[in-house]
Amino acid sequence: MTLAEPDRERVTETLDREPTRPEAALFENLWSEHCAYRSSRPLLGAFESEGEQVVVGPGDDAAVVSLDDDTYVAFGIESHNHPSYVDPYDGAATGVGGIVRDIISMGAYPIGLADSLYVGDFADEHPRYLLEGIVEGIGDYGNSIGVPTIAGSTRFHPGYEGNPLVNVACVGLVDEQRLVTAEASAPGNKLVLVGNATGRDGLGGASFASEDLGEDAETEDRPAVQVGDPYTEKLLIEANEVLIDEGLIESARDLGAAGLGGASSELVAKGDLGADIDLGNVHLRETGMNATEILLAESQERMVYEVRPEHVSRVEAIAERFDLGISVIGETTDTGRYVCHFDGETVVDVPAIFVADGAPMNDLPTIDPEQPEPDLPDIDLREAMETILASPNAASDEWVYRQYDHEVGARTAMRPGDDAGILAIREAETGLAITSGTEPTWTDTAPYEGAYATALENATNLAAKGASPLATVDCVNAGNPEKPDVYGEFAAIVDGLADGCSDLDVPVVGGNVSLYNDSNVGPIPPTPTLAMIGTTPDFDAPTLAVEGEGELVLLGEFTEQLGGAELLAQLGGADRFPELPENPSEVIETIIEAASLESTTAVHDVSDGGLAVTLAEMIHEDGGVDATVPSAAALFSEAPGRVVVETTDREGLTETVGDRMAVQSLGTTTTAGGLSVTVADEDETVDYDTAQITEFRSTLETLG
């Protein structure tokens, strides 16, 4: 990419001269869609971000919310989509590294990761190759830095064939005294670069992420992909802890998109200050680098700190102790200008706020999406059941999460594979639950309704574990916004998320937007990933596994609408998206109350694959299910906001929640294992033992 002509004209008019080459490159990257949100910012005001628990909202490296007066959670999400197509291993690994640095830049210590992965058709070789590399990259990086991956999702859809998505969320712990922001505090302080040496990797990464992927992207765009070093990241995490403990940091920002130029200019602009930087002071790992390369390289594992002059020597000593490179690259000023020198020349001299936040917004045309007309296939119960259980989207994703260390740190109270992961926050005597993902078949069918349902689904995942939703961050992914139909879908998923979270009273405290996820095979499905956190007074929670000695009930209504369901993705056909509940907040409160009863022994939400998959996931060798549903459509509908509950006191459950949600009989659980499902209107039953269910659901085990 080069600086677009209208942008060049705007820059030239403001500077009253032509920009230098480094200036033009800086504007190109910081005014890219990836950094400036030029097409999305006009829509993002729909999100409600305030609440008593919100300490730091959108606009910083990460959001911060309070668990109590003494314990805060830093929380963020990031996409690394284009890099993960070009180089799946390094693209995904550096996505982990980037979001972890966002957390530590707030003064927090990272304690948990969640990954949401989206790739093309599982039947094709290339998506499987991409997934294997992505999972390996996430696992190697997260495992090496000692941060457990405790939640996430993996979804397959033909629309991701030419452009996979890697959305990674992280949570960390901080308190009021340790909290740091990315807002420079005072002129005369030193700007200190700590971490890896700067090379040429990742050059132009921000602009690369703001254009469609070409057919030759895997070779031509390789220089735009960063290379990660998790062992240096671990040292940086621990060094950051010491720097924060000793009160040496005034403000901080990690070096991600647009490298040093992006981090340092945004840092001072947020504080309404300026900067005077000597690029020749930056510690390098390659010779002959010019000013533009030093300014914009996205080499990983680097942080820029604002440090008082009297603290610089101590910061240098700590960096040396952890074997990290360090450069004093300049200082903050009261001029409001962002100035960089190199080899005795001034190569950048621009208003800091103008370069960091002056990109003009786009006013793009939209075409509103429409839902499909119903066109339902004939359903053969046994064929449909076995097809869905073996579908990659409904099959077990144990192959993915068993490659991640999910117990390092000794906080994991509920491991991956359930509705949500739970971390023990002993400092606040609270369980912190986290869930992450969306269902692209939902939003592909009905962007607004599917995105609204994404909010409800993530809240339901938390509620099923007895956790009250606290806050959420979003990663909104879409194709080329210059296409009116794509921009219409994007606007619809933003509105759907905003309305869903508002109705649930869950503030959207931060997020990320990734557009231009378009390739020679077309745009991706609109993909509104949410990562949502919640709190529970206990570290323990009911799992999804039945104990085998209770009744099985559905909280919610049986529905036969199949829009967005995996059944139609596998068998063909179309339908309207299921109706959404009018009172989602009450639904979530009711599920939490049901999950918290002593008589509740298992809870599992109904989502991908409908009741068919929910019931199959609840069985094991010592716990089986004998269930009856009214129709085949009711068995496979994915209407959100419903859970299946195993209870030893059906009457008590009904007395407690029956005035707010329907309590529908499904059947009984047994200690013999296996799954038996009867469809009442067809008077047909299918029976499977546990080994058969395990075999059906082992589809991802065929990966390397």
Describe the structure concisely for a colleague.
By secondary structure, this protein is of the alpha+beta class. Helix content is 34%, strand content 25%.
Structure notes:
- With 704 residues, the protein is of the alpha+beta class.
- It has 25 helices and 28 strands.
- Strands 8-10-7-11-9-12-13 form a seven-stranded mixed β-sheet. Strands 23-25-22-26-24-27-28 form a seven-stranded mixed β-sheet, sandwiched between helices. Strands 1-2-3-6-4-5 form a six-stranded mixed β-sheet.
- Helix 18 packs parallel to helix 19.
- The protein is globular, with a radius of gyration of 25 Å.
- The two termini are 37 Å apart.
- 61% of the residues are buried.
- The model has no long low-confidence stretch (mean pLDDT 94).
Which short descriptors sum up this protein?
single chain; 704 residues; alpha+beta; seven-stranded mixed sheet; 25 helices; 28 strands; globular
Q: Mean pLDDT score, rounded?
A: 94
Spatial shape: globular
* Poorly predicted tracts of residues: none
Structural class: alpha+beta
Largest sheet: 7 strands, mixed
* Rg result: 25 Å
Ends distance: 37 Å
Provide the spatial order of strands within the biggest beta sheet. 8-10-7-11-9-12-13
Q: Report the oligomer.
A: single chain
Number of helices, counting only DSSP H or I runs of 4 residues or more = 25
What is the number of strand segments?
28
- What percent of residues are in strands? 15-25%
Helix coverage percent: 25-40%
